[in-house]
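Collaborator request, handled under Task 6.
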Amino acid sequence: MKTYHYLFLSIIFLNACIGDDLIFDEVDPEIRIVNPIVSIEKGASHQFEYRYFNNVGVAEELNNFTWTSSDPEIVNISETGLATGIEEGTALITISSDQPGVFIEDSNEVTVSDETIEATSERSGEIRSTSSYLLEGSFVMKEVVEDLILDIRDDYKASTALPGLYIYLSNNPNSIAEAFEIGEVEVFEGAHDYNLGDMIKLNDYSHIVYYCKPFNVKVGDGEIN
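Structure tokens returned to the collaborator:
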């Protein structure tokens, strides 16, 4: 009798949790500059780095890509992504690649000035529920000294009825395959944070994802803008 009762509750939970974005696991392939800069000192160089994510959000090596500068007389860029400030002004640095059926690219506007300035050390987003359970709020990801901090803001609320709720970082909002598991959710209302250490960088992931781990069901996500 207890077994049937447990199965009945499990079916109810799964039906309540299934949202509108669990049918397809595929996402658009993406190429991402992971160390953008605001400006570069005249005469100095900056080695751009990138990551490529396939149609399920998994990082892969990319063999065919091209670095270009909108104005090589202001910022010159080599085939390997080494940018050099030539003259004062602004240029758009782009990495692009032709993939089967899709053209992908990412760009970074760079100004040549009297100093090199890295891009913002902060990204943010909104948490949304993809189930019938309450899950909402906002967050900021920021670099503090050498550590990466995920700061959940005080407008955060989550239903305590969500069993085994875990939070992940992923490049596919529909899957936690190849995702980074931050840990079990222990706070269901108000501000709190997660110290992710120095192994993860600010631009490594595109989404935070909430999963009910015992049922392997997604219940929410948030794009890291």
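The cover message to the collaborator said: "The helical segments are 2-17. DSSP finds one helix and 20 strands in the chain. Please let us know whether this matches your experimental observations."
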